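Protocol step 4 of 6: structure prediction from sequence.
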Amino acid sequence: METFAHSWPLVAAVRYDDRLARAVGKWMYHAAHSARYFYPDQLLPEMQTNWEWARKHSTTLPYEGLKNKNCDTETLGPYGCGDPTTQGWGPSNLGLYSGCLSGAFGAIIEQTSVPNVLVLNLNATDTFAPKSFPTKLLYNPRPHRVQVEVPIESGEYVAWDTVRNAEIHSESAGGTFQKVQRFQGVMDV
């Protein structure tokens, strides 16, 4: 639950302090790739507390939490669990409240033309922001440069790297903005 909840303010904060760009990009990259393990159909049955219930009722409800091992068998790996059954206040460790903010990931994370290179929409969860330019964070986890195509709306744009405080590219665009060098930073497009 906290993974989804933390993304909401954390990603928006990059708009106000560009020193957060690399750390937030890296955090979101790893969170986006591991969040699937909250869902029962992404785990082995023996690596979760409520597989039988999920199989019978719904595999779309996420677990409240994950542990790094099955506490009963000491088997390593993501283990779907939570507080409701261990603390006796609920019949299942699966629940709506655990994933109610998973929609924040859907609003924030956008695809690029290169697998695993993320575009994060910094405006999506900045709920009280004044009117501003669309602002994106591109995160490339690779140690080498890649060419990335990022879909943008029609209009005139100046792509600005606020981490390096330099213009990347100006273009009147109608479809894609092509980036030809490694980019980890905030981009106003």
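Step 5 (inspection) to follow. Confidence is low (pLDDT under 50) at residues 172-189.
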